[in-house]
Write a structure and sequence with these properties.
By secondary structure, the protein is an alpha/beta fold. Helices cover 47% and strands 13% of the residues. β4, α4 and β5 form a beta-alpha-beta unit. The structure holds magnesium ion. Magnesium ion (MG) binds next to loops.
Length: 194
Amino acid sequence: MCFYRAFLVLIVRLLLFRTMTTPLPDRAARVELLLLDVDGVLTDGSILYADDGAELKRFHVRDGSGLKLWRLAGKRAAIVSGRKSVAVERRAAELGIAPVLQGRDDKLAAFAEVLAATGLTAGQVCAVGDDLPDLPVLLRAGVAVAVADASPEVREAADYVTMVPGGRGAVRDAIEWLLKLRGEWERLVGEGKR
Ligand SMILES: [Mg+2]
């Protein structure tokens, strides 16, 4: 397990070398789309089952306010999730997130579909993840963000690690970091107050 982790970290570092050749502020300025994982990013990773078999999710209200600001900036957000639930469809609809790709084990293939659907390049995406299945996408996206309680390999691959864990406002944290890096935060907060 230790060897496996060390090997993975080495691969991550080699792949990171490529993106590190472009300064982070330049990569951040190009971002048009926030690509979100659900379990462990928009939620704390808990999977709750109701008696009728429905899967329940608990979202954080501040992620919603962050995403509103993100949309105010004229930017988009999309979801790629390994699992599938009606609750995610509902939350995504509330927040204007589209496309929403659920039940996708191969996140890289789903990422390619999102790019095809939006006409964007990987460099125009900021991906937010928490666990190993997110790594291939994080390594290809222009900007990579890990939630505070992400696995070590994911944190290693990230340009930014949020201050709060998944499901506790991590997406809002990521958006604030990105908008501040782009120099847009103050103006958008002012506009949001009106
Ligand atoms: Mg996850």
